[in-house]
Amino acid sequence: MTVHVKHFDRDKALEVILFIANELKGSATFHSISKMLYLSDKVHLQEYGRMICGDRYIAMEYGPVPSAIYDMMKVAGKRTSIDVDWDDIIQEAMCVAQGRNVIAKRACNMDLLSESELECIQQTIAKFGKKSFGALVDITHDKAWHAADENETIPLDAIVATLPNAAEVAGYLHAH
User: Which backbone phi and psi does 107 adopt, to 5 degrees?
Assistant: First the structure.
């Protein structure tokens, strides 16, 4: 039985992007935000049995990329459109410089993030936030990334299987 992500929360996703961008203090890129969220999601799955934003990850050349969040960052860079109203909300909250640097235009609305989500993101940034592009690629080219073909969705089961408590998390997810 395959486990699926319940739903994507785009309001929370926007705030997570802003939180990570602000925490990375000027070094936030599409790549670093994607990797911080992937690693945070793994910790949150391990500890709390759920993903932070409910996004699906795509196995791209340089590691897992949260699909909808990547699209949101592309909207901020005016490279794509989701819908007119949502595009405006995203572009009022952040912009992209030099094609890849994500700049938050405001603080994150902390009310949309739980204590556990903030804790996992902060732990991940403390541990991995200063890692180089190449180091983040190596760290996130895990067994889950290898379980999917390039540009295909990484199965949630594959992500769960990388966790030290994989059986417990899988059992929990199958029951809910």
Answer: -75, 160
Least Cα distance to 118 among 46, 12, 26 occurs for 12
Rounded-to-integer distance, Cα 152 and Cα 146, Å: 11
Q: Do the beta carbons of residue 103 and residue 28 sit within 8 Å? A: yes
* DSSP 8-state class, residue 111: G
What's this model's pTM, rounded to 2 decimal places?
0.94
Task: Output the pLDDT for position 4.
Answer: 46
Contacts for 148 with CB less than 8 Å, ≥ 6 apart: 58, 59, 154, 155, 158
Cα 70 from Cα 17, distance rounded (Å): 10
Using CA atoms, how far residue 151 sits from 64, 103, 106, 146, in Å, is 9, 26, 32, 12
Whole-angstrom distance, CA of residue 55 vs CA of residue 37:
10
Q: What is the pLDDT of residues 62-88, one digit of tens each?
A: 999 999 999 999 999 999 999 889 999
